[in-house]
Design goal:
By secondary structure, the chain is α+β, with helices and mostly antiparallel strands. It is about 25% helix and about 30% strand. The chain has a single domain, classed as Gcn5-related N-acetyltransferase (GNAT) (Aminopeptidase, 3-Layer(aba) Sandwich), CATH 3.40.630. Strands 1, 2, 3, 4, 5, 6, 7, 8, 9 and 10 form a ten-stranded mixed β-sheet that branches.
C-alpha cells in the first residue's frame, strides 16, 4: 500500500539532464493543484490524456473520478515532483479486479516539462510501484500518433498486443521487464531513452483535433524505434 505523504523513490529518479526528481502519493489536498494543472495543459495534451478537452474547466465529475477512488491499493496515484519539489506530473495504476496482477496505467506531465525526461521518470516510478504491489501486467489506451507515450510504455518491458481499439487508438498490453509474464516471447521490445507525453484511458468526449495520417501497428513500432533510437525485435 502507498501511504499518504510518503515520498517514493526519492533521489532514485533522474531527468534527462541528471537533475533528481521523486514521486509521492496523490492526496485529497491535491485536488485544486491537479485541476489547475489539467487546465494549464494545451487542448492537444488534454486530449492525449483524457480523450477529450476542457475548454470550460474540468467538470466536478471528472475531478471526483481522479481523486475519490484513490486508495493506495486498487487505485494508486503518484505525483511526480520536480527538482525543487513542486508537482510536475501525475501517474496512475488502476487494478483490474478480474485479472490478478494487472492494472491500467496512465500518466501526464505538465507541458512545460515535455522533453525533459519527466514522463520517462514517471513511467519508471509507476512500473517500480507496480512490481512492489505484485503487478507485472499493464494495459493502456494511447492515441496512435502519440509516439512519445508509446515509447515510454514500451521502455517498461515487453509489448505483446497493440490492437486498434477504435479509430486512432491503440490498446497496449505491457509486461513489465522481469515480471512473471515476461518469458521472452515478445512481439515488440523497445529500449529505454523515451521522451514523454501522456497516456490514458479512452473516454467519451469531444471530437479529436485534426491528426496526420499515421502508419499501422508495424509501421508505428518502426516509427517509434527510429524516433528514440531503439531496436525493434520480433517474435519468430
Amino acid at each position: 500500500m502507498v501511504h499518504p505523504g510518503e515520498v517514493v523513490d526519492k533521489g532514485a529518479l533522474r531527468l534527462r539532464d541528471g537533475r533528481p526528481c521523486s514521486v509521492r502519493p496523490l492526496v485529497n489536498a491535491d485536488r485544486g493543484a491537479l485541476r489547475a494543472g489539467i487546465e494549464r495543459q494545451s487542448p492537444e495534451s488534454q486530449y492525449r490524456r483524457f480523450f477529450t478537452t476542457f475548454a470550460h474547466g474540468v467538470p466536478e465529475k471528472i475531478m471526483d473520478g481522479l481523486i475519490d477512488p484513490v486508495d493506495g491499493v486498487n487505485h494508486i496515484a503518484l505525483v511526480l515532483l520536480g527538482p525543487d519539489g513542486s508537482p510536475i506530473g501525475v501517474g496512475r495504476l488502476v487494478c483490474n479486479q478480474h485479472v490478478p496482477g494487472s492494472a491500467e496505467i496512465s500518466f501526464a506531465v505538465d507541458d512545460d516539462w515535455h522533453g525533459t525526461g519527466a514522463g520517462a521518470a514517471l513511467g519508471l516510478a509507476l512500473a517500480r510501484e507496480a512490481r512492489r504491489q505484485g503487478i507485472d501486467y499493464l494495459t493502456a489506451s494511447v492515441r496512435v500518433n502519440n509516439d512519445a507515450a508509446l515509447a515510454v510504455l514500451a521502455s517498461l518491458g515487453v509489448v505483446r498486443s497493440r490492437r486498434v481499439a477504435e479509430p486512432g487508438v491503440y490498446d497496449l498490453e505491457v509486461f513489465i521487464e522481469g515480471g512473471d509474464h515476461d518469458d521472452g516471447r515478445a512481439a515488440v521490445r523497445l529500449g529505454a531513452g523515451a521522451d514523454e507525453e501522456q497516456a490514458g484511458a479512452a473516454n467519451d468526449g469531444e471530437e479529436p483535433p485534426d491528426e496526420e495520417e499515421h502508419p499501422g501497428p508495424i509501421g508505428l513500432a518502426e516509427a517509434v524505434a527510429d524516433k528514440v533510437s531503439n531496436t525493434l525485435t520480433r517474435e519468430k
